Amino acid sequence: MSGIAQHLEAVRRRIRTACERCGRSPESVQLVAVSKTRPAQDILAAFQAGQTIFGENYVQELTAKVAQIHEPLQWHFIGHLQSNKVRQIAGQVSLIHSVDRFSLARELSRQWGRLGMVCNLLVQVNVSGEASKSGTTAAEALDLVRGIALLPHLQVQGLMTMPPFFDDPQEARPFFRELRQLADRISGEHIPGVSMEQLSMGMSADFEVAIEEGATLVRVGTAIFGER
Ligand SMILES: *Cc1c(COP(=O)(O)O)cnc(C)c1O
To answer: Among 7, 136, 140, 206, which residue is least crowded by beta carbons within 10 Å?
Structure first.
C-alpha cells in the first residue's frame, strides 16, 4: 500500500470514529481530498485507493490537472475565485465551495448557462471576521443567498467556512457551530431553489470537531498527502 493509501485509510477511520461518537452515519460525511500543489501522480494514487473527490484552490493548477488526468474523478473548487477566471473552469467542477459575493455568482451563472449546465455552489462565510479570510459576513449571508437564488443556472447547496487556526481544535468548535446555526436560519427562510444540506467545514487539524458539529464535507489535504 502506498503512503497516500495508508493515510487515506487512517483519515476514513477517523471520520467513522467521529461519526460514531456523535451518532451520525459515516455516509453523511464526504471526504474532499485537497490536492493543491500535489502532482498528478499523488492524485492518481489516492484515486486508486478509492478517493473520488478532489479539491483545488487555483484555477491554473486545476485546469492543468483536468487536462492531464482522465480518470473519472470529481473536482471541487475550494479557493478564492476571481470572476475573470470563471470561464476557464466552467463545467469542469462539480461544486464550488467559495462563493462569497454576488458579482462572482453572476459570472458563474453566465458561464455555466452558456454550457447549458447548472453550477452547484456553497456560500463561503467568514464566521470569525478575520480580515485575512475571504467569505461574506454572517450578517450578510442571508441577503447574498437570496440574491443568488434569483440567478438562473445556479444551485445553492449550503455553506462553507474556514475558522482561524488553533493548536487546540476544540477552539474551532464555536465557529463550526455558528455556521450550522446560520445554515439552519437560512433553511428556515424556505428560499425557493436553495438547499442548506451541505456544510463544508473541517480540515486536517480539526475535521473531527467539524463532524461533531454537522459537517457534511470535510476538506483534508495534509493528513492525506503530507506537509505541503
Ligand atoms: C488547503 C486547504 C484545505 C486543506 O488544509 P489541510 O490543513 O492541508 O488539511 C482545506 N480548505 C481550504 C480552503 C484550503 O485552502
So the answer is: 140
